[in-house]
Specification:
Blueprint: H1 2-25, E1 29-30, E2 33-37, H2 40-51, H3 56-70, E3 80-87, E4 92-97, H4 128-139, H5 144-157, E5 159-160, H6 163-171, H7 173-176, H8 180-186, E6 187-188, E7 191-192, E8 198-199, H9 202-214, H10 217-220, H11 223-234, H12 241-246, E9 250-252, E10 255-259, E11 262-266, H13 273-283, H14 298-318, H15 329-332, H16 335-343, E12 385-393, E13 398-406, E14 414-415, E15 418-419, E16 451-455, E17 458-464, H17 470-483, H18 489-494, E18 498-499, E19 507-510, H19 515-523, E20 528-531, E21 542-546, E22 553-557, E23 564-567
Parallel strand pairs: 19-20
Antiparallel strand pairs: 1-22, 2-12, 2-23, 3-4, 3-13, 4-9, 5-8, 6-7, 10-11, 11-16, 12-13, 14-15, 16-17, 17-21, 18-19, 21-22
């Protein structure tokens, strides 16, 4: 009997080993490069550049142009975004802000809130071409025309509609139907394209070819720019030739913070890296590494929720266009301010009892002298659609890139094959004291936060997500899953998520949060809305983990949406 038990035990150990190996083999890995994007064809475009001798920046630019073709609901030439670059050998990091900017004449359009979201009045000056071209000029190694080849090919030859795009076309048919040119792309004989149907975008291919052969200037000056300005004007918009020719991407440094001895690099203002670092600073005051996971503990989830509420309140009060707004960045990033915010968390119940009543803190006593020279809410809670790309090359150079059209399919208006953004929806209009109040020529606040985490000078995690305001809470949870709970990238991506903010009434949960945890949260004062399974509402994280022990790259593409991660 003893021998039988021993044999059975050995068999179980062997089987456990097989199961572990099977699970680990499901996670894409590589040593020469890793790409994670929201669409397989964009991933292929990036890999094509890496295997042609390009670096991570070449691959990211190629993927960003390509994904604007194959995921046209989320990004493209008519949008904007931000790119974070880390050069491993030089231990240098840079951030390029190429978000859309309000026209110098925007107030003349008479834009009115939700009513004009899917009209030309909502269009801001697009920055995608300028930002990607800047990244390539400063850091790329392949010819610019080369990195555009996949995008041109996909637009010209077409690609099959995937399940996610098919669903979004059907769900957003009203927005698509506001413009004849847009309808020609996504409808056939008046019916929405379905999964497996071919999308060919000849006009977009022509525009991309002009950019490839004549350079990015051709998008912002000359006949192409004039045609786009006229097309937008014919639809009721106010973009001018000067808007196009004067647009410049902003080359700056990312924000820097630390969390449990990891260096956090994330998007500079007016994008929301500030919120990620502040939240981690607050949560760092609690020993999560010896605590249950938030999906299994109401106490831990409540702690994180309260910290996130404080961060959203501070973001609403203090985050805006740094060219215009007085942002106390050093104070909001300080450990001392975070400690003060942490000490105001009521661990037993929701306090105040309504999310909307949470108030911003006072960071100004913590402001560093060097920041005091800086110059002098209600942004959209629509289901903003964005896309994220994470890439690392064989030398460890890393890119985290997030770009967007605003809402799904942006403004719905297409000119010269370019589907334009609806970035006017991101400003505040009703609160006249808002730091994000609309102004001609201004850049709105944005939730995007491409992030790279560094450990001992080496990339450790490259991550980002779409999801409008949910991006902030989603990235906080993913980072904590990996650093505090030692999850691998796939486990961290699949772990249940939650979301709340200062302008909402509910704590949104995925059903993986245990029922007993939900019950306790309600007793603590939270009003819940639960989503079955895992849901696109909570973002779509594309990330890469770099094993500090062996330098191997592991990728994960969020199963809440399409996409894939591939290494080699």
């Amino acid at each position: 009997m003893k021998k039988l038990k021993t044999a059975l035990l050995l068999l179980l150990i062997v089987l456990a080993g097989f199961i572990t190996d099977a699970v680990s083999q499901e996670i894409p890995f590589g040593k020469n490069g890793m790409v994670a994007t929201a669409h397989p064809l964009a991933t292929e475009a990036a890999l094509e550049m890496l295997k042609s001798g390009g670096n991570a920046i070449d691959a990211a630019v190629a993927a960003a142009f390509a994904i604007g073709v194959v995921e046209p609901d989320g990004s493209g030439l008519g949008g904007g975004g931000g790119m974070l670059v880390y050069l491993k050998e030089r231990h240098e990091s840079y951030y390029i802000n190429y978000y859309a900017r309000a026209s110098e004449n925007a107030s003349q359009a008479g834009y009115s809130g939700k009513k004009d979201a899917f009209t030309a009045k909502s269009i801001c000056v697009p920055g995608t071409v300028a930002g990607l071209a800047m990244a390539h000029e400063k850091f790329g190694s392949l010819p610019f025309a080369k990195v555009l080849e996949p995008a041109v090919r996909l637009a010209s030859e077409g690609f099959a509609v995937d399940p996610t795009l098919a669903r979004l076309i059907l769900d957003r048919i009203d927005a698509i139907s506001t413009d004849t040119a847009t309808m020609k792309i996504f409808l056939e004989d008046g019916f929405p394209l379905m999964e497996g149907d071919l999308i060919v975008q000849k006009e977009l291919a022509r525009t991309l070819s002009i950019i490839a052969s004549q350079g990015p200037e051709a998008f912002y000056e000359g006949p192409l720019a004039a045609s786009m300005v006229k097309g937008v004007a014919d639809r009721g918009g106010v973009l001018s030739l000067n808007d196009f020719s004067s647009y410049e991407a902003q080359f700056t440094k990312p924000l820097h913070g630390t969390y449990r001895n990891y260096d956090i690099l994330s998007a500079n203002a007016p994008q929301s890296g500030l919120s990620l670092i502040e939240a981690l600073n607050i949560i760092e005051n609690y020993d999560l590494q010896n605590a249950p996971h938030y999906s299994e503990s109401a106490k831990i989830l409540h702690l994180m929720a309260e910290a996130i509420l404080f961060v959203y309140a501070d973001r609403t009060a203090y985050l805006g266009d740094p060219r215009i707004a007085n942002i106390p960045i050093s104070a909001l990033l300080s450990k001392e301010y975070a400690r003060e915010r942490f000490e105001h968390i009521n661990m037993d119940k929701l306090d105040p009892p309504r999310y909307r009543d949470v108030v911003e803190g006072n960071p100004f006593p913590f402001l560093k002298e060097s920041d005091k020279h800086m110059t002098d809410d209600d942004e959209s809670m629509y289901d903003g659609h964005t896309t994220h790309i994470s890439i690392i090359d064989k030398d460890g150079n890393s890119v985290a890139l997030t770009q967007t059209l605003g809402l799904f399919f942006g403004s719905g208006q297409t000119v010269e094959g370019v589907l334009f953004n609806c970035a006017m929806t991101n400003f505040s209009y009703y609160n006249k004291k808002s730091i994000n109040l609309f102004k001609d020529g201004k850049q709105s606040r944005s939730s995007i936060m491409p992030t790279i985490i560094i450990k001992d000078g080496n990339p450790f995690l490259i991550a980002g997500s779409p999801g409008a305001a949910r991006i902030i809470s989603t990235l906080i949870e993913v980072v904590i899953n990996i650093i505090d709970y030692n999850m691998n990238v796939e486990e961290a991506n699949l772990a249940p998520r939650f979301f709340l903010r200062d302008s909402e009434d509910f704590l949104y949960l995925e059903s993986g949060i245990k029922p007993e945890v939900r019950k306790k949260l309600e007793e603590m004062g939270h009003s819940l809305r639960v989503y079955d399974g895992i849901d696109l509402f909570f973002g779509g994280v594309q990330m890469i983990y770099i094993d500090p022990e062996n330098g191997m790259y592991y990728g994960s593409a969020d199963k809440r949406r399409g996409g894939n991660a591939v290494g080699y």
